[in-house]
Amino acid sequence: MERIKSGKLIHVVRSVVLAMSLLLIGTGIMKQEHTEVLQKAVKICLECIGIG
Fold first, then answer.
1. CA 26, 28, 32, 36 torsion-angle sign
2. Among 9, 11, 14, 28, which lies 20 to 30 A Cα-Cα from 35?
């Protein structure tokens, strides 16, 4: 009986974490955050190789 409750709890926790992750990813995409992250990554890469 305890195993079943524990298994259900793990399933619920995983589902909640997945839902929150998708919500936050969707929010970031709607706010165009991915473009800012890409620009920063490019800038860092160019600085590493000595161009930027």
1. negative
2. 14
Half-sphere exposure of 10 (CA within 13 A, CB side): 6
Q: What is the pLDDT of residues 1-52, one digit of tens each?
A: 567 678 899 999 999 999 999 999 999 999 999 999 999 999 888 888 887 6
| Domain residue spans of the chain | 2-48
Helix ranges (DSSP H) in 1-52: 2-30, 33-48
Q: How far apart are CA 22 and CA 31, in angstroms?
A: 14
Residue in the block written with tokens 């590493």: 48
Scan for tokens 């920063």, then name that residue.
40
